[in-house]
């Protein structure tokens, strides 16, 4: 764990998020009643030499808030890591728990907010409070070339942290949309994708083909070959 992450997991800045993540960890979902929930802020994880950073929304209450690893133990993670495996950024397509052997190569996965929010909706003040953590994580990726922003909230988080990271832009009028690319001066290319949440995948708004297309483009812009 990065020294930063040892500090991040002790964060209690947002009273509402602290109360919710801990309540969920005590009440649990019936299917996981015998498991010990993480119930703390969830740090990002992946390759410290990553050229690609994935910025999602927040830990799922019974996903990362349970397992302690981003996008692990829920259906959004199933979609994400299958796509990353196909694109050559993950050694396996599955992600069940923090000890399942998943290793990311050339990629780092984090989120705009590091605690599970009620109804999966962090408030603007919670997003602002957590921005410093995500900015600090991203700042440690010295060879970053691409940021894949999952969902509008993930995109706005990237734009919020850009000035702190010395990136200027985006081009006036650049707005979130699936497949949209925004080049930041002094920084990476930001690629937008619909979030692989159930409300998008179950409705067909995001298909695996659409997600693969984004990951192929991400791989190309990162300079990574299919074989890694």
Short description:
The protein has 228 residues and is α/β, with parallel strands linked by helices. The protein contains eight helices and six strands; from the N terminus they run ααββααβαβαββαα.
The CATH top-level class label:
Alpha Beta
Q: In which order are the strands of the major sheet placed?
A: 1-3-2-4-6-5
Which value, in Å, is the CA radius of gyration? 16 Å
Number of strands: 6
Write down the secondary-structure element order. HHEEHHEHEHEEHH
Strand residues, percent: 5-15%
CATH topology title: Uracil-DNA Glycosylase, subunit E
Indicate the CATH architecture: 3-Layer(aba) Sandwich
Residue runs with pLDDT of under 50 for 5 or more positions: none
Report the sheet with the most strands, covering strand number, pairing sense and barrel closure. Answer: 6 strands, mixed
Name of the CATH homologous superfamily: Uracil-DNA glycosylase-like domain
Pairing-aware structural class of the strands and helices?
A: alpha/beta
Instruction: Please give the share of residues in helix.
Output: 25-40%
Summed up, the domain count is: 1
Number of helices: 8
Bulk shape = globular
Overall residue-averaged pLDDT value: 95
Give the terminus-to-terminus CA distance.
24 Å
């Amino acid at each position: 764990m990065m020294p930063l992450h040892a500090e991040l997991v002790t964060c209690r800045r947002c009273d509402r998020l602290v109360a919710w993540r801990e309540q969920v960890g005590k009440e649990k979902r019936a299917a996981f009643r015998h498991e010990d929930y993480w119930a703390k802020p969830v740090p990002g994880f992946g390759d410290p030499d990553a050229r690609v950073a994935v910025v999602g929304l927040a830990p799922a209450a019974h996903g990362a808030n349970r397992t302690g690893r981003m996008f692990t133990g829920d259906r959004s993670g199933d979609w994400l890591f299958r796509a990353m495996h196909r694109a050559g950024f993950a050694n396996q397509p599955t992600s069940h728990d923090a000890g399942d052997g998943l290793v990311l190569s050339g990629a780092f996965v984090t989120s705009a907010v590091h605690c599970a929010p009620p109804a999966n909706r962090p408030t603007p003040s919670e997003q602002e409070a957590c921005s410093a953590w995500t900015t600090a994580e991203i700042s440690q990726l010295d060879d970053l070339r691409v940021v894949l922003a999952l969902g509008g909230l993930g995109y706005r988080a990237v734009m919020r942290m850009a000035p702190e990271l010395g990136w200027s832009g985006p081009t006036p009028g650049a707005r979130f949309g699936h497949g949209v690319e925004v080049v930041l001066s002094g920084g990476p290319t930001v690629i937008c994708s619909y979030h692989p949440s159930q409300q998008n995948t179950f409705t067909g708004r995001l298909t695996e083909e659409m997600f693969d297309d984004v990951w192929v483009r991400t791989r190309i812009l990162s300079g990574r070959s299919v074989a890694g």
